[in-house]
Design goal:
This protein is of the alpha+beta class and 396 residues long. It folds into two domains: 235 residues, FAD/NAD(P)-binding domain; 149 residues, no CATH class. It contains eleven helices and 19 strands. It has a six-stranded antiparallel beta barrel with strand order 11-14-13-12-15-16. Strands 2-4-3 form a three-stranded antiparallel beta sheet. A hairpin with a 2-residue loop joins strand 18 and strand 19. The two termini are 21 Å apart. The structure holds flavin-adenine dinucleotide. The site of flavin-adenine dinucleotide (FAD) has 32 residues, from helix 11.
Length: 396
């Protein structure tokens, strides 16, 4: 949509071929329905390793301020929540509507429920033929913006672009779900009721800490997810698919340093009079976390504190500081927000055109670019879309 608008604003006659029955289906689900459009803390380090060298140049050409101005030009006013940019409306669907309205105003034709299937290039210059499930279209330039495998079924994110681009001779870096949660290894005792709470999660392979993130953690009877898990997930999915034993170590007291936690532990233990274990832990942490920890340690809530040894009391409280959960497989593409891997950046120039055929452009998540959670992926869609849209409208 962004590419089409930039191309049309630059004078091109544009047609969008859309497989779904509406535009922006995934966009309308973003940011829990609020749409985290971009982030003021925009750095190339917020993107996957293989894209970082190129990212700085692209973000310089079109960064968060450009995206904010673009949306203002569509009538979408934004606000910053600690640098995370949302529409003031708090509604992702208002962002979709504003884009769709602009598409209408610019006279861009939209063909719905038609699947783009491939390209027939007619020689090395002149028009190309865009082939769909129903028809074919001649064009001076084509922007492939069909997204990835990620998102709920209704988004129809079936990764068509990977196959199409491979057929065009582009190399595709192996894909994995990213910004995704994980199933826990069978046998892990998890909370019988869902838990949402602030925590730090470190991901460990042997003695190596792969990543460490703090935020709202979500635990279910068989999975671990939430922001700190999703942020670290890109690299973990690959390691897990290779059968590597990755462990999540959870600290439910991320705001306490070691001395502060030690002092808290001492203070707590001084309370252990004739109360039960359940009474002792009643206000220490989320009750579902406590239930899980006690059942992992096979301890009964009705035990009297005076019958529990000092070292066991310390061991119970320390479990809140470093609870270990072995990870199983990732929760899959449909539960993921982005796909890591995709069309190799070596196949596109600075203007996102295919190096072997300048009439074809590739943008968005289909490329081997994925960012952290927090507006980075939509910013990439807007950055790449605007650059390619402008360049495509200038191609002969
Ligand atoms: C639940 C969820 C929440 C998210 N929240 C955020 C967030 O808050 N902030 C953020 O930055 N990122 C977020 N993301 C990621 C972000 O939505 C994507 O990175 C971004 O939408 C990718 O843009 P795109 O244009 O490349 O692909 P898409 O948005 O997937 O658009 C691709 C379009 O192409 C169409 N299409 C696909 N195949 C074909 C075909 N063969 N023929 C014709 N049309 C086709 C699709 O129907 C779709 O309209 C979220 C993702 C999900 C799933």
């Amino acid at each position: 949509m962004c590419a089409a608008i930039y191309a049309a604003r630059n004078g091109a006659k544009v047609t969008i071929i859309e497989k779904n029955d509406c535009l922006g289906k995934k966009l309308s689900m973003t940011g829990n329905g609020r749409c985290n459009l971009t982030n003021l803390d925009m750095r190339s380090e917020c993107y996957n390793l293989s894209s970082r060298d190129r990212m700085a140049g692209w973000l310089e050409a079109y960064g968060p301020e450009d995206a904010i101005c673009f949306f203002k030009s569509l009538g979408v006013v934004t606000l910053s929540e600690d640098g995370y940019i949302y529409p003031v409306s708090g509604q992702a669907r208002s962002v979709v509507s504003a884009l769709v309205n602009e598409i209408g105003r610019l006279g861009i034709e939209v063909i719905y429920k038609e699947q783009f299937k491939g390209v027939r290039t007619l020689g090395t210059d002149g028009e190309i033929e865009v082939v769909t499930g129903r028809s074919s279209y001649r064009a001076d330039a084509l922007i492939i913006a069909v997204g990835s495998y990620s998102g709920p079924k209704s988004t129809l994110s079936t990764g068509d672009g990977y196959y199409i681009c491979e057929k065009l001779g582009m190399s595709i870096k192996k894909t994995y779900p990213a910004l995704v949660g994980f199933k826990c290894k069978e046998g892990e005792v998890m909370p019988s009721q869902g838990v949402r709470c602030r925590a730090n999660v470190s991901f460990v392979l042997g003695s190596e800490v792969l990543a460490s993130e703090t935020g709202e953690l979500q635990l279910t009877a068989d999975s671990i997810s939430g922001i700190p898990v999703m942020q670290a997930s890109g690299e973990l999915t690959r390691l897990l698919s290779e059968g590597k034993p990755v462990c999540a170590v959870i600290d439910f007291f991320p705001e306490y340093d070691d001395d502060e936690f030690d002092a808290l532990r001492k203070e707590m233990i001084s309370l252990s009079d004739d109360r039960t274990l359940e009474e002792f832990l009643v206000g220490f942490a989320n009750s579902n976390v406590t239930d899980m920890i006690l059942s992992r340690m096979k301890l009964s809530k009705s035990m009297k504190m005076k019958n529990i040894s000092q070292s066991m009391k310390e061991c119970i409280l320390d479990s809140y500081r470093s609870l270990k959960i072995m990870l199983g497989a990732d929760c899959g593409y449909q539960a993921s927000q982005v796909t890591t891997g995709g069309v190799s950046l070596g196949d596109v120039g600075q203007d996102l055109s295919y190096i072997r055929d300048k009439r074809i452009f590739v943008v968005g998540e289909l490329l081997d670019v994925d960012g952290r959670c927090g507006g980075y992926n939509l910013q990439w869609a807007f950055t790449s879309g605007s650059i390619a849209g402008t360049a495509a409208s200038e191609s002969e």
